[in-house]
Amino acid sequence: MNAITSLLPLWAVGIPVLGAIIINRIPENQVKARNMAAVITVIVTFLNVASMLPVILKGSLLQLTLVRFIPGLELFFRVDPLGIIFGFTASLLWIFAIIYSIGYMSRQPSQKRYFTFFVISMSATMGVAFSGNLFTMYIFFEYLTLCTYPLVVHSQTEEATKSGIKYIAYCFGGGGLILFSLIILQGLVREVSFVPGGILGATMGEPRVLLTIIFFMVILGFGTKGAVMPLHSWLPAAMVAPAPVSALLHAVAVVKSGIFGMTRVLYFIYGPEMLVKLGVVNYFAVIICFTILAGSILALRQNVFKLRLAYSTISQLGYITLGALMLTPAGLLGGIIHIINHALLKITLFFCAGAVIRVTGKTRIDEMKGIGKRMPITMGAFAVGGLGLIGVLPINGYVSKFYLLKGAMDGDRTIFVFVLLTSALLNSMYYLPIVVNAFFREGEFVKPRDLEAPLTMLAPIVVLAAMCILFGLFAHKTTIPLVEYVVNYVF
After folding, report:
1. How far apart are CA 325 and CA 284, in angstroms?
2. Cβ distance 247 to 354 under 8 Å?
3. Residue 304 dihedral angles phi and psi, to the nearest 5°
4. Where are the alpha helices (DSSP H) in 105-232?
5. H helices of 226-328, where?
6. Residue 301, exposed/middle/buried by CB under 10 A (0-12, 13-18, 19+)?
7. How does 217-253 read in b/e, with b if 16+ C-beta sit within 10 Å?
8. Domain residues for 384?
């Protein structure tokens, strides 16, 4: 593909930083000005990212060397088909999240700090998406941890403080593994750039034992943010954060950065041929299969609304990684489509949970019988999200699950088919009772004076639920051809 030098990736990182500085300088009591600045910053960043999409789809890459410290070690941006998928999805959903935050955080203290870090976290996520080598990704990976930590501890309660310590310890621990792997790889190949087919597969095959050790270190480093078991416990703990933070940063940005990093390692550093030669895929697949099933089982046992969603996220993230580990075009197609579909579905579910908590103060599932009478639109959208993650037609989740199953069968991985179908069954067991209790069980909720959450919260919920259905009905015109282009680039 033709490489074009461009400042657009730098702007994607820089605009949120500029916006955060402006937000931080607006006095605490000037709510409308701060909200407007936050919304404009996020929209402008998205438009900048969206302007790169046609260039990539026409067969070009956008790149920029920002700083070269020594030969082979540089801050380097490269926008390729995989990066633009992640960057476009995250920046689009940030618009919904910032609007939702305005409603959710109204009358809450420390809004200036919240919106400052909420916006600047977008900068770190765009940096991860558009990193051209492992060094750059490591820098923005750690930057994302620092930006999101104040959001996790926003309430400043004792529970939030403990959760924040766990969050930063896990994330920095994972970052340390990445850094150590980077140092060793740098000594082997000088420049750890992201090259389709893998830079290691193209240059060397030895030393085999060392490459195997590095593989598991760097994979588990990214896997910490990707909530791979047993490195997952920070994610449920971080649900103490406000609902918009849980929705976006822990369903889209933070966890997806980990999954995105693992995909880069699998296909752009090691490559399918090297992975097969080292024989590491089956061992890692065992860990991922365990994560999928255990996450689903633990979700089934949760009575706290957001915790059930958190453990569901752990399981669903495993779907994406499992698709990548199949090393087949259909498997990778299903995994990348699930990055998009899971993001849409899970952010909808978290927004619904946040609306319920905001309006009723209820946080436990057993307290929500009949809540569909009180909040029919919110719980209708929740039903869409839950059915989508189960894989019910015509909601978008079925598309990625279909290709994941196809990839497993193409690779003669019957055990993967069993894991995916079992997890889908468990999904139905922990999502359907919530919907049934909401609409078909009698409880304390009756039709209220003021229906639903504020419009700034309800509008994003409705639009996102509609997108989940439309992306399912018209997947052949939207996500499938887009991701097929990525898969062709990778293979």
Report:
1. 8
2. yes
3. -80, 130
4. 111-129, 134-152, 158-189, 199-203, 208-225
5. 234-237, 243-248, 254-264, 271-278, 281-300, 305-325
6. exposed
7. bbbbbbbbbbbbbebbebbbbbbbbbbbbbbbbbbbb
8. 280-491
Contact by Cβ (8 Å): 382, 371: no
Q: What gap in Å lies between CA 439 and CA 460, rounded to an integer?
A: 22
- Which tokens is 65 given? 């060397």
pLDDT in tens, 436-482: 988 888 877 766 656 788 899 999 999 999 999 999 999 999 999 99
Q: How much is the pTM?
A: 0.93
pLDDT of 404 strictly over 90: yes
**Which of 142, 127, 135, 137 has the alpha carbon at shortest distance from 192?**
135
With beta carbons less than 8 A apart as the criterion, state whether 327 and 410 touch.
no
Pairing of strands 2-5, 73-79: unpaired
Q: Which two tokens stand for residue 3?
A: 């490489």
3 state DSSP class of 276: helix
User: Is residue 151 within 8 Å of 241, Cβ to Cβ?
Assistant: yes
Q: Evaluate whether residue 323 is within a structural domain.
A: yes
Strand partners, 141: none
CB 245 within 8 A of CB 151: yes
Does residue 352 fall inside a structural domain?
Answer: yes
Number of compact structural domains in the chain:
1
For residue 490, is it within any domain? yes
Query: Is residue 67 in some structural domain?
Result: no
